[in-house]
Amino acid sequence: MPSESVHTVRSYEQELGRMRALMTRMGGIVESQVAQALTAVIESDEEAAQAAPAQDPQVDALEREVETLAIRLLALRNPMAGDLREVVAALKITGDLERIGDYAASIARRSTRFDLADGRISLSGLESMGRLVQENLRRAIDAIVQQDADQAMDVWHADRAVDEYYTAMFRALVTYMMEDPRHIGPCTHLLFIAKNLERIGDHATNIAERVYYAVTGDNLPALRPRGGAQSDLTENVSPR
Amino acid sequence: MPSESVHTVRSYEQELGRMRALMTRMGGIVESQVAQALTAVIESDEEAAQAAPAQDPQVDALEREVETLAIRLLALRNPMAGDLREVVAALKITGDLERIGDYAASIARRSTRFDLADGRISLSGLESMGRLVQENLRRAIDAIVQQDADQAMDVWHADRAVDEYYTAMFRALVTYMMEDPRHIGPCTHLLFIAKNLERIGDHATNIAERVYYAVTGDNLPALRPRGGAQSDLTENVSPR
């Protein structure tokens, strides 16, 4: 029955295509959440501060939808080799995307909890770090959509620069706090914001690793060229 | 050929059993990392501070091993219904466990970066929070091992108390910083340590949700009784 087999193949491809479309949509929303979060902090934009968390339920719903579709694909289509790796990677990647959305929402909420009215605290480091993280995230999501291992590898290498920004920001913020106790409140929030941005970069790197594995069947080296954890070593605050 | 079919079923059960054993081992290591991290902070124990990050590569290797086995199971055994949900949940849960190990390692590393020599900063809140998080994590891992939906539901409800501890600690630490600028260094690290603990609790809750879904086929309500993100709203620091 060749017609039935063609039909089966077609609807299999359709389901895989649908899963990719859901991932792309999820990636798009998460990217917009990160952009809103940064606008909320840097421009003290109340509307953006509300907009990022408001998209959370949609991201959660998409994660579940991808999971349901993946389970269906695994049960009914028994995908093999590259397709199977792609379905498994999708299950993991949606977890990373969901976390990124979470961090973005958390940044946006924090942005309304402090003000920098005295103008002494510069946000230019945060702005540069934010741009870089957004760029990495955009490329990681492109790598998913295009199943592009080279792009994934580039993202994986770029994370080191994010960590360097984070370390510089950490030091600057602690210095502000020591200079004036009135800076302690806002700088504490900014410390968490910087950390959340660094974590977003970390998850973009995770996504890149997973795409690379799904496409090539090989793992990137276990030791990353950066270090979400290692960077903590450089936060060597001397308190006196 | 009944003997071959029996053989197939047996080795399928064996592989599923092996996957469960790997998860249990991964859970055990991650639990010990969290215990080491807390000992490192609370007792300024250098050895424990080294021990937690030292286990990271093993956790990463186990995550990959579960993934490889899961892919094999999905490709060759085409598991259905509850078994399929369990394999998919395993892929997600190992991601949560890996993150928990990461947070524990990060706490342990930080513990060596400051000292509380002046004795003014109390760690009793952190100690209580740590005990609760460990308890939740232990129960979440039990729920995986025993595929116990009721246990999972209990963990899910218990996370609210972790958030309350975190909020109280956040306030106390900011107060210490404002009292004496020499507290800014150590308290900044303690803020991150408390946040990491809260995130560990969050991932234990994620695990509980996934176990619940794998066992019952139903999702826990989208709105959690707690709020990793919501708790940020209560960190309303007034800096002046």
From TrEMBL, chains A, B:
Q: Which GO terms describe its cellular component?
A: cytoplasm
Cleavable signal peptide: none
A GO biological process held by the record: negative regulation of phosphate metabolic process
Q: Which PANTHER family match?
A: PHOSPHATE-SPECIFIC TRANSPORT SYSTEM ACCESSORY PROTEIN PHOU (PTHR42930:SF3)
Q: What does this protein do?
A: Plays a role in the regulation of phosphate uptake.
**Family, similarity comment:** Belongs to the PhoU family.
- Write the protein's name: Phosphate-specific transport system accessory protein PhoU
